[in-house]
Structures are given as C-alpha cells and as structure tokens.
Automatic annotation (TrEMBL):
Protein name, UniProt field: Pyruvate dehydrogenase E1 component alpha subunit
Domain of life (superkingdom): Bacteria
Start and end residues of each stretch annotated as Disordered: 1-31
Domain Dehydrogenase E1 component: from-to ranges: 70-358
Cofactor needs: thiamine diphosphate
PANTHER family: 2-OXOISOVALERATE DEHYDROGENASE SUBUNIT ALPHA, MITOCHONDRIAL
SUPFAM superfamilies, per the entry: Thiamin diphosphate-binding fold (THDP-binding) (SSF52518)
Gene source species: Micromonospora pattaloongensis
Low complexity bias (residue ranges): 9-19
Gene3D superfamilies linked to this entry: 3.40.50.970
Pfam families: E1_dh
GO molecular function, one term: oxidoreductase activity, acting on the aldehyde or oxo group of donors, disulfide as acceptor
GO biological process, one term: branched-chain amino acid catabolic process
Length: 394
C-alpha cells in the first residue's frame, strides 16, 4: 500500500509541552507514544517532549493495508521458522512480536530513504517491496546474502552487532555532502539495531558522529527486552531513548507494538532528518515473542508469565480490534488476508526448496571487483583439490 503523506506530524522544537502518552507496561516506565491501545482504541494524538504532535490520518483502505502487512510478515516469518525446523534453513532470526515496529517504520520510509537493517528486519524488507526470498539464500547457506543496496534502498543484512549504525552514519554524512537534504524531497537514512547493540562501541561512535555532523539519520532501536539471554537491565540504567540527550540530539520512546504510533514517530524523525535537522533516536518498546534465533531456547532464561503479559499487547490483535470496532472490514476481509498470507507462505516455501546449491568455487567470486593474482592462485588450487575427489565415494 502507498502511504503517501497521510501519516502526519508537525515538528517544532521550541515548545516544552509535557509528553502525554500513556504509561508503558508496569506503570513505572517512562511515557511512550501510543496511538492505538492494546484494546484497539484510537488515541487521537500525542504531544512529544519537544512539542512534536504525533498522529496519523489514514484512510480505511490504508488501515486495512497495514493489517494486511502485519499478517503477511508474521506468516512468512512462521514459514521460515518451520523451514529451519525441517532442515531447509541453517538458522532463522524470527521477528515474532516485532511486526508493528517493523511495518510502522518500514511504511514511514519515503522511496528515496536508505535503510540499514540487522538480521531481523524481514518486515522492513517486505515494506520496501522486496521479494521475501531475497535474504533466505543467506539463511539457507547458498549465498552470502549480497544484493545491491541501491536497487532496493535497503542495505545488506548485518550480523555484526551495531556495525551497520556506523555504515549508515557515514552514508548519511555523504547524503549531506551531496546536498541531498533540506527539502521535502531530501533523503534520510534509518539504521536498525537492538537493545543489546546500544552497548557496542560502534553504536556510541555512530551517535557521536551523527550528532556532531548533524547527519540525516534515524537511529531505530527495537528494544525487544533481550540480547539473546541478556535482559535489558544488563545494558542500561536509564531508558535507552534518554541516551540521545548525551549525544546532543532528541530521543523518543514509542510503543513498538503499535503500528500507528511507530509510523507517526518514524515519519516525523525521517522528515526532520531530510530537512537538515539532524538525527533522532527512536526506542521502539517491544518484545521478542519467540527465541533469539532457532538456535536459542528462551525457556532457559525467561518466565512464561512475562511472555503472557506481552501476548496481551499483540501488535496484530489490536489493529484487528480497531478495524472491527470501526466496522471498516467484514469477516470476508479477514479470511481473504489469511488466505493471501497462506498462499504467499506456500510460494516462499516452494521457491526456497528449489534454490540451487552453489558451485564450491563461486566462493572466490565477488571478493574483488577486478580479481587478484593471489585469489586466482587460490581458486586454481581449490579446483585441483575438488578434482582429486572425482571418481571417489566422497
Ligand atoms: C560484534 C558482535 N558481538 C556479538 C555477536 C553475537 N550476537 C549475535 S546477536 C546478539 C545479541 C543482539 O541483541 P540485540 O542488539 O538486542 O538485538 P536482537 O537480536 O534482540 O534483535 C549477539 C551478542 C555478534 N553477532 N556481533
Ligand atoms: Mg534485543
């Protein structure tokens, strides 16, 4: 769906209005921006700490489109998990629970904006209009996960925690140097990372550079409460979004299970960046409902009641409740979406199973743009080694 300009925000940093978002889980947490409650009630608008008003003004069709996105990315994610369990993928990093954070921010991107993901941003990838098969070669081990970032305005998946924030900041500084900020058609850059990544030197260095050089950056932290088994309290003594103040740019916490609020906050931060107003740190407060990856067993380090508490804040259920209350879709609509999601998952499965195995010597391809004598020698040696097996049982 095309979001156009309907998700609106006005940004003014002069006023000092108090934040008015509802409290996060537990009651003791700082306020966050929420436009859709877990019960599916719309909050008209929320005023951020700097006076920015966050709201959205979607058409019925656009609300239905967001619901469709959320359901489909969850279904494709479940299919990928199943493929791994059946031995068809080497590993999978599920986005379960984080659909709203990813669809909200992904839909807030304008076509010219560049995204730098981690390894979990399958929902953002989907919103960029990219075929979901694209990253599965990496997880199946049949390619190195390389694609042309410029073609999709979506960089490569990055496994090295936090590294992409530096790449993104350098890229964003380049955007400024190219004179591509300053108007509505300016470019902005978004870097995704997790709560654990905020403890990395790379991320803190990226904050320094982006702040000092006023880079057109949005730092989008999905605080899913865990870095593998390490809980949030092992990363920070203060709410993560407050870290931004120390680097000289604004930070804001958004309900990451609320697709509307995530859209509004991300759109505002991106627009601020593209107009030359510098970086923003967004902390999307959410929860990783599944395992860290398929190699992880979260029952070893977290209790079931915690997971159940977050289940009640499910990002998809609240959009469905809202749509039903508004009576902007009927039962056929929901059935049709489920069917579309099922078809897309079957299609994904079939295409994953049909992926060709790579030839071993392709390992040497794409290392250098114009090759190298040393690499050529290594390829020849490796080819002779492979040939030595010909005719043997191995
Ligand atoms: C530099 C580096 N150190 C350690 C790891 C191993 N590792 C992989 S994922 C992960 C936790 C990341 O947690 P977080 O940033 O919260 O992201 P999440 O996986 O929860 O989305 C770690 C430590 C790595 N990939 N890179
Ligand atoms: Mg995390």
């Amino acid at each position: 769906m095309a979001k156009g300009d309907r998700g609106t925000t006005t940004r003014g940093r002069q006023t000092t209005a108090r934040p008015r978002g509802p409290k996060a889980a537990g009651g003791n947490e700082p306020e966050l921006v929420q436009l859709l409650t877990p019960e599916g009630e719309r909050v008209e608008k929320v005023t951020g700490p700097d006076g920015t008003e966050y709201t959205v003004d979607f058409t019925d069709e656009e609300y239905r489109g967001l619901y469709r996105d959320l359901v489909i990315v969850r279904k494709l994610d479940a299919e990928a998990t199943a493929l791994q369990r059946q031995g068809e993928l080497g590993i999978w990093a599920s986005l379960l629970g984080q659909e709203a954070a990813q669809v909200g921010s992904g839909r807030a991107l304008r076509p010219q904006d560049m995204a730098f993901p981690t390894y979990r941003e399958h929902g953002v990838l989907y919103c960029r209009g990219i075929d979901p098969i694209m990253p599965l070669g990496l997880f199946r081990g049949v390619d190195q996960g390389g694609w042309d970032p410029n073609e999709f305005k979506f960089n490569m998946y990055t496994i090295v925690i936090g590294a992409q924030t530096l790449h993104a900041t350098g890229y964003a500084m380049g955007v400024t140097m190219d004179g591509k900020t300053g108007g509505d058609d300016g470019e902005a850059v978004i870097a995704y990372f997790g709560d654990g990544a905020t403890s990395q030197g790379d991320v803190n260095e990226a904050f320094v550079w982006a702040g000092v050089f006023n880079a057109p950056m949005v730092f989008f932290c999905q605080n899913n409460q865990y870095a593998i088994s390490e809980p949030l309290e092992r990363q920070t003594r203060i709410p993560l979004y407050q870290r931004a103040a120390g680097f000289g740019f604004p930070g804001i916490r958004v309900d990451g299970n609320d697709v509307l609020a995530t859209y509004a906050v991300t759109r505002a931060a991106l627009d601020s960046a593209r107009h030359g107003q510098g970086p923003t740190l967004i902390e999307a407060y959410t929860y990783r409902m599944g395992a860290h990856t398929t190699s992880d067993d979260p029952t070893r380090y977290r209790i079931a009641s915690e997971v159940e508490a977050w289940q009640a804040k499910d990002p998809i259920a609240r959009v469905r409740a809202f749509i039903e209350k508004q009576q902007i879709a009927d039962a056929d609509f929901f059935a049709e979406i489920d069917e579309q999601a099922r078809r897309e998952a079957v299609d994904l499965r079939e295409r994953v199973l049909a992926m060709p195995d790579p030839q071993p010597d392709t390992l040497f391809d794409h290392v250098y743009p114009n090759g190298s004598p040393l690499l050529d020698a290594q390829r020849d040696q490796f080819s002779r080694y492979l040939e030595s097996f010909e005719g043997s049982a191995h």
